[in-house]
Amino acid sequence: MHQEYDVIVVGAGHAGCEAAAAAANMGSKVMLVTMNMQTIAQMSCNPAMGGVAKGQIVRELDALGAYSGIVTDYTMIQFRMLNKSKGPAMWSPRAQSDRMLFARKWRNMLEEHPNIDFWQEMVKSLLVKDKSCVGVVTGMGLEIRAKSVVLTNGTFLNGIIHIGEKQFGGGRAGEGAATGLTEQLVELGFESGRMKTGTPPRVDGRSLNWDVMEEQHGDEHVTGFSFLDTPKVEKQIPCHISYTNEKVHKILKTGFDRSPMFNGRIRGIGPRYCPSIEDKIDRFADKERHQLFVEPEGRDTCEIYVNGFSSSLPEDVQFKAMRCISGFENAKMFRPGYAIEYDFFPPTQLSISLETKLVENLFFAGQINGTTGYEEAASQGYMAGVNAHLKINERDPFVLRRSDAYIGVLIDDLINKGTKEPYRMFTSRAEYRILLRQDNADIRLSPLAEALGISGMEERMKKVKEKELAIEEIKKYFNKSSVSPLELNPYLESIGSSALKQQVKLIGVLSRPRVGIQDLAKQLDGLSQKIKDYDPELIMTAETDIKYEGYIVKEKEMAEKMNRLEDVYFYNNIDYNNIKALSMEAREKLNEIKPKTIGQASRISGVSPADISVLLVHLGR
After folding, report:
1. 60 closest CA partner among 225, 232, 221
2. Mean pLDDT for the stretch of residues 288-312
3. How far apart are CA 553 and CA 491, in angstroms?
4. What is the pLDDT of residues 245-255, one digit of tens each?
């Protein structure tokens, strides 16, 4: 091992893997420390990547040169574009992954990187000198020195697993908890809290009756996640859908008196948008059934993930209730569902770069910041890895604004608003959804990654420039080309659109509802020839830009107006208690978070528009 590393990453989950890769691709010498080399990039919960808003994050990561999108494309067994019935701003890619292959591909990519070393052991404490982190100490007492450290501990910090009345230490099924770090960080002045998450039982697919369940197939056209030429899954594996029923609910209720959720043994707050099955039937007592997604764990295993049946009830209750689900009458359980409680650190203790305010050169990423989800963790890991490299090289931090990326929305929410429950990304959290579409992430973000100095961006930027040029050519064609009533009226009448009365520009026809470029190409030979060599996703991006041009312009204007506040900086060490015109709550929140700009201050919970006006006057604006 080296005498000293540039960056040490503690934890090799989704956040840790992206942090290590990002710092290494910036040129840093990285040490990735994990408690178990066999569980690098483990999908601890469901075997899937993407989903509503999460899919946008994975595509953004890929555009930035990260690895999650590439790994997902190589290991997916099914692909679906969600929300296709809604506008393009809501479209979200989701892939069912081969769990074992996913972890293996991630490990291979990390091992192939010459800048990454590995060490298998628990980290029990940090080396802190003059309020700056200079390394870590392992359980065996080994000191590993570094210029910066990124903590991505997931659910392992003082983790406790709950199954009914049983509880035992652990960060994941079959793996121990990490101890020592929380206690040291609290001694250093950090505030900590407890959160809870859970996972459903895993069952033997050979014991299920698939014939009585609904089949859910993947999309015929697979977009994938990476903007590179990654392989696209050909033979997709279907998922299935079943439902709970009143008998299932009745059996589950018999275990409520032994549930750690209801008898007070779990103190941590669980994810609001991914509740356990017992929480569902308690909170939604009027519902006669709840949907379950029966998901394969991979091509070469019979292990099945029962999505929607997360539980911490006693294993005998879980098993008995499960056998009353349609298709599960003879189900064999591999392991029961469980809840896990773990330490986190409210993210308002971080700066916009994810560096801690109390200890210099120490960064937090992932569930340690109170988030939930692989994608949310991976994006924080990437940003922390990049910013750790930038910090030790005395460069300005890399910051994505809310108008730049969903990743920017995520981090801005965390550091300014904090979170009392596991934070999950949704499209509704973003103000600029038409700008932040999944199809244009490469155009938005790849130039930023190239400017940063991320290695391997040459091919991506070549593709971005080709894509921009092609989109511009398609737009010009629609602006210049005209079409006659004779050419299009039969088609327009067939879709219930009003007939043309005279020759019009093609762009005017495309702006109509239910009219798409591919549909028009079937009617117009010239257009068909123009787009025949273009990728369908590129055509869809061009269509969206044309159809929603007015809305896109308005969103850009709104974003530019808000971003002007991001350029109004506070001077250092301002004491807000001395600004008496501010509300008391604003003074407390501003002193706690210490925003860098007026824009950041405006998004802090408890800081009103009137307070912002006071601050602008105070700064002479």
Report:
1. 225
2. 96
3. 30
4. 999 999 999 99
DSSP 184-223: HHHHTT---EEEEEEE--EEEGGGS-GGGSEEEPPPSS--
Instruction: Give tens-digit pLDDT for 172-227.
Output: 988 999 999 999 999 999 999 999 999 999 999 999 999 999 999 999 999 999 99
3-state secondary structure of 483: strand
Distance CA 415, CA 369 (A): 9
C-alpha 505/C-alpha 539 separation (Å) is 19
Between CA 97 and CA 130 the distance in angstroms is: 45
For residues 13 and 152, is the Cβ–Cβ distance under 8 A? yes
Alpha helices in 393-434 (DSSP H): 406-417
Which pairs count as long-range contacts for 492-498, CB under 8 Å and 24+ apart, including other chains? Answer: 495/519
Strand partners, 333: 203
- Separation between Cα atoms, residue 522 and residue 504, nearest integer Å: 18
Q: How many CB atoms lie within 10 A of CB 480?
A: 10
Tokens standing for 617? 């006057």
pTM: 0.94
Measured distance CA(180)–CA(182) in Å, rounded: 6
pLDDT tens string 59-91: 999 999 999 999 999 999 999 999 999 999 999
C-beta separation of 451 from 390 below 8 A: no
Q: What is the pLDDT of residues 499-513, one digit of tens each?
A: 999 999 999 999 999
Taking Cα atoms as reference points, which of 308, 305, 396 lies closest to residue 352? 396
What's the confidence (pLDDT) of residue 269?
80
What pLDDT does 569 receive?
A: 87
Distance of alpha carbon 38 from alpha carbon 179, whole angstroms: 20
Q: Which two tokens stand for residue 323?
A: 């056998």
- Could you tell me the sign of the dihedral formed by the alpha carbons of 446, 447, 448, 454, in that order? positive
Neighbouring C-beta atoms of residue 500, cutoff 10 Å: 17
Closest CA to 308 of 498, 611, 112, 48: 48
Residues 6/72/365/45 CA torsion (nearest 10 deg): -130
pLDDT at 1 over 70: no
10 neighbors 119 (Cβ within 8 angstroms):
no
Give the DSSP per-residue string, 523-570: T-HHHHHHHTTS-HHHHHHHHHHHHTHHHHHHHHHHHHHHHHHHT-BP
Beta strand extents in 51-142 (DSSP E only): 76-82, 92-97, 116-120, 123-129, 132-138
- The sign of the CA dihedral 284, 287, 288, 294 is negative
Cβ partners under 8 Å of residue 38, min gap 6: none
**Cα–Cα distance for residue pair 138/457, rounded to 1 Å:** 35
Instruction: Find the distance separating the first CA and the last CA of the chain, reported in whole Å.
Output: 53
Given a contact cutoff of 8 angstroms between Cβ atoms, the answer to whether 10 and 123 are in contact is yes
What span, in angstroms and rounded, lies between the C-alpha atoms of 1 and 33?
A: 12
Identify the helix (H) or strand (E) that includes residue 612.
helix 609-618
